[in-house]
Every structure is written in C-alpha cells, then in structure tokens.
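4.2 Preliminary Data

To establish feasibility before requesting continued support, the project team ran the inverse folding procedure on a target of 164 residues. The structure was first converted into the token representation described in Section 3, and no sequence information of any kind was made available to the design step. The complete token record follows.
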C-alpha cells in the first residue's frame, strides 16, 4: 500500500502548479536525506521504514520515494511494492553506481553535493562523468562522406549528386 500511496501522490496532480509544488517539496526532502547520508558516509541504511523516515525528517511516503530513486544504486534492489511502514529494510549503497545514476538523470543538485568529496575523490567523479558522456555519444556507421560515391548509383560523388 505504501508504494501505491507514493505512486498516487507523485503522479496525480490537479494542475501544473500543484505538481510543481509537490516536486519541489519532495526534491527538498530527498536532498536532505542525501545530505545526511553523504555527510555521515552512511553506506548501509537499515531499520524500520517508519523509523528511518523519522530519522531523516520526512514522511514514510517521501522516504519510499527516496527508496524508489535509489533502488537501482544499491547492491540488492528492493521489491518496493512489498514495503510498508513497519517493514525492516537493509540496503547497501554502491557509491559509484549512485553517482553515475545521479549524473545520468542530470540531478546536478545531488551529484554536486559537498558530501561526495569525502566518498569519491574528484578524479573518480570526473571519470564517472566522462564515462557517462561517452555512453551518450551516437556513432553512425553508415554515414556517407561528402567525397564518397553517391548511394543512388549515379557514379558521382555524393556532394555533386544527392548531397547538394
């Protein structure tokens, strides 16, 4: 039920203004959780969901939203649909995967947090960003050069035929 509540509050908004307000509030809460986790180098988050939500100063629904966001960056992903307020969780964060995933979703407000300085050194973070950028480069194997023969079969160079 908790996951359904998370989906309900995150997806159903009466208007754009309500949606913006919701996401501002959630992202502020999520950022505060990450600040706490990074500054304390908390690689393992364990306990009852309701206790963890209280510890991080958020609602259980927002804490589940945090779990939804971090689920691909932990060693063993959780079945979020089975998690309730009284569920005991024990997750271990894969720091490099988390940083990469933050870069991938362009969450600059998270991957630029100062707490990363004590967890991943600057060179490693830079290399993770480079690796991510390389994964986004699209190389076309079938690209026709200006001086290649035209694919229409005319025998002319592409630039003098169909490339005009």
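Position-by-position output of the design step:
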């Amino acid at each position: 039920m908790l996951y359904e509540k998370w989906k309900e509050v995150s997806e159903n908004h009466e208007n754009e203004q309500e949606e913006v307000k919701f996401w501002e509030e959630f992202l502020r809460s999520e950022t505060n959780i990450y600040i706490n986790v990074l500054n304390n180098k908390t690689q393992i988050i364990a306990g009852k969901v309701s206790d963890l939500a209280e510890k991080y100063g958020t609602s259980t629904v927002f804490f589940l939203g945090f779990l939804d966001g971090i689920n691909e960056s932990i060693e063993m992903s959780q079945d979020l649909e089975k998690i309730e307020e009284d569920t005991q969780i024990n997750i271990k964060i894969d720091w490099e995967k988390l940083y990469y995933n933050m870069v991938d979703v362009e969450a600059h407000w998270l991957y630029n947090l100062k707490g990363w300085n004590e967890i991943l050194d600057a060179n490693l973070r830079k290399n993770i960003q480079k690796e991510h950028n390389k994964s986004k480069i699209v190389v076309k194997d079938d690209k026709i050069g200006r001086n290649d023969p035209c694919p229409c079969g005319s025998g002319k160079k592409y630039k003098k035929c169909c490339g005009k």
